[in-house]
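Quick one:
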Amino acid sequence: MYKLLRQILFLFPPERVHYLSMNALRFLRRTGVGKIIAALYYPKGDHHFTAFGIRFPNRVGLGAGFDKNARYLRELQLLGFGFVETGTITPLPQAGNDKPRLFRLPKDKALINRMGFNNDGVKVIADRLKSWKEQKCSSGLIIGGNIGKNKATPNEDAWKDYEVCFKELHPYVDYFVVNVSSPNTPGLRELQEKESLRKILTHLQVINRQQAQQRPLLLKIAPDLSLEQIDDVIDLALEIKLDGLVATNTTISREGLLTDKRKTDAIGAGGLSGKPLEKKSTEVVRYICEKTKGKIPVIASGGIFTGADAKEKTDAGALLVQVWTGFIYEGPGIVKSICKTISIQ
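Output:
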């Protein structure tokens, strides 16, 4: 049924359909259909899994960028997600890049986006998460805070933006992900260099240790790093006792696409996600897990559409998996389908 619905939805601009679909799901929940939706899509059985000292309802999460502003947590919970990563969140609100900025590549089961960290700003989102927590709506849903810097903030001051977001969100999220790997904020990926990362991450670790309850701190990396750069990330993560890595973000590569090159050239810049990223992200996950002998926990992201795709990532060493583009192409049954396949062990 979803394949037919997808054909209709794909006739309209992606960003507009995104909000239309989620608002429709919200309307259905409010009209009392939520229990039916949960019965259809929430995974059956016990799929709890502990990672980073957190007990997750299951191992399948929704990657950052889908619910940037924490507006649809109740709706996403109905679909069975074990965790939802909000953001990327910046200190000040920002509109992001000019539209259109999200593009489908159906032949490749892929998306290209250059959203540009569009979000409501950390104070608004923190208030929203506070309300969510106070109303006890979560019922175990784990919330991650994916944090970044504002476009106008120079790289030498980026650490200040990450500090603001970390402090504002700390009471309301279960873990943090530092995003320095999006290709859609000019110069951001320069912060993946070892010394730039050290400055940001060690500063956040100091703040974290001052809190009554520390939050796991993870770093999201690009799939386009060289092995030498990945080694630098690993060395730093072990040195400062980082809690984990998210591998990987979107890629700037356009190699091996079935989509006509004239179309991708017309689309222009942006991060590519979906099936074309599957192999590369798995390679990065496996490299990290083998190199560290599992000492650095990994959340796998990139090209996960089916239970078999997710198992490929967990077999490579990932503890948890995140979907995004796969959710768009496979529909609301994706979490239940993956949970049937991957082991809880």
